[in-house]
Design a protein that fits this description.
CATH class of one domain: Alpha Beta
Order of helices and strands: EHEHEHEHEEHHEHEHEHHE
CATH superfamily of one domain: Alpha/Beta hydrolase fold, catalytic domain
Shape: globular
CATH topology of one domain: Rossmann fold
Oligomer: single chain
Strand order of the largest sheet: 2-1-3-4-8-9-10
Largest sheet: 7 strands, mixed
Number of strands: 10
Number of helices: 10
Helix content: 25-40%
CATH architecture of one domain: 3-Layer(aba) Sandwich
Structural class: alpha/beta
Length: 281
C-alpha cells in the first residue's frame, strides 16, 4: 500500500497501548474521538520488544491509505516513534504518559534513573517460549497487589483490580533493546504528562517530551491517565488532529516545533509550547 498521503483521504488516529495493557485501555478516548467524527484504530501491540513491536505497528500504518496521527501510551510512545520513522504518511505524534527515546537509548537504563517511578519494585518476572525449540525468554508482569499504587493510583480500587487481572506481560527486550531513529526529530509532537506517574516516572516522561520539542500538557493523574481522564487525553489528540489535518495550518510546512497558534482546547492546561522562531528553538 502506498505511503503517500492524500488531502482527499481522512486522517486516521492510530492508538498504540503500552506494556501491561491492551487496546481496551483506550476505550474512553475512542468513544470521544468517534463522537467527534474522527477515524480511529487501536491495534494490539505485541509487547515482544522494540524491533518486533515497531515493525508490526509500522505494518499497520502502512495499510492505512491516508495520513496518520500516531498516539502512544507508555512503552507505546517508543513504539510509535520507531514505527513512524519508517513511514511517510505519519503527520504527527502524541505521547500519552509515554516514552520518547532517542536513537540507541534503552528504556531500562533510562527509567533506572527516575526518582518518580516505583514500577521496578512491582514487577514479577516470568518466562515465555520464543518458538525456537525449548528456548524461553523473560517477560514481566505487575504484581496485582501493587498495580493500584504503581500503575493507576487514581483509578477506583475495583477497576485497578480488573486492570491487574487482564494485564498483558511485556518482554524484557522492550527494556533492553536499543531504540532506532526517532520520528519526533522530524514530526510535530504533543505530550500528555501525568504529574503522579509512578510507572514511567513523571520526571522521565517530562524530560523526554521537552527534548522532543513537544507541546506539553500536564495533568494531575496517574500513569493510566487515558483511563482515568479520557476527556483531557481526547482533547489533546483532537488539538493535534486539527493542527495536522491538511489545509488546517495557518502557514508554513508541517514539521517539528512550528507555531500552531492558540490552543483550541483552552480548558486543557498547556505548560510548554516550543516554537520555531528565525530558524532557532
Amino acid at each position: 500500500m502506498s505511503q503517500e498521503t492524500s488531502t482527499n483521504t481522512p486522517l486516521t488516529v492510530v492508538l498504540v497501548h503500552g506494556a501491561f495493557a491492551d487496546a481496551s485501555s483506550w476505550t474512553g478516548v475512542i468513544q470521544r474521538l468517534q463522537a467527534c467524527g474522527v477515524q480511529v484504530t487501536a491495534p494490539a501491540n505485541p509487547l515482544r520488544g522494540i524491533s518486533i513491536d515497531s515493525a508490526y505497528i509500522a505494518s499497520v500504518i502502512d495499510q492505512i491509505s491516508g495520513p496518520v496521527l500516531a498516539v502512544g501510551h507508555s512503552y507505546g510512545g517508543a513504539v510509535i516513534s520507531n514505527a513512524a520513522s519508517m513511514k511517510k504518511n505519519v503527520v504527527g505524534l502524541v505521547f500519552v504518559a509515554a516514552f520518547a527515546p532517542d536513537e540507541g537509548e534503552r528504556l531500562g537504563a533510562v527509567t533506572s534513573g527516575s526518582k518518580d517511578s516505583v514500577l521496578n519494585s512491582a514487577l514479577v518476572p516470568r518466562r515465555y517460549p520464543t518458538g525456537n525449540g525449548a528456548e524461553t525468554a523473560v517477560e514481566f508482569a505487575i504484581d496485582p497487589a501493587k498495580i493500584h499504587d504503581a500503575f493507576g493510583a487514581d483509578l477506583p480500587v475495583e477497576l485497578a483490580a480488573i486492570v491487574g487481572a487482564t494485564q498483558r506481560p511485556v518482554a524484557e527486550l522492550a527494556f533492553s533493546e536499543p531504540n532506532g531513529r526517532p520520528a519526533w526529530k522530524t514530526l510535530p509532537s504533543w505530550a500528555v504528562v501525568a504529574t503522579a506517574d509512578k510507572a514511567a516516572g513523571t520526571d522521565v516522561v517530562r524530560s523526554m517530551a521537552e527534548r522532543a520539542g513537544a507541546t506539553i500538557t500536564e495533568v494531575d493523574g496517574s500513569h493510566v491517565i487515558m483511563i482515568s481522564q479520557p476527556q483531557i487525553v481526547a482533547d489533546v489528540i483532537l488539538s493535534a488532529v486539527g493542527h495536522t489535518t491538511p489545509n488546517q495550518h495557518s502557514s508554513g510546512p508541517q514539521g517539528r516545533n512550528h507555531d500552531y497558534g492558540e490552543n483550541p482546547y483552552p480548558h486543557v492546561r498547556t505548560t510548554q509550547i516550543l516554537q520555531q522562531q528565525d530558524g532557532t528553538i
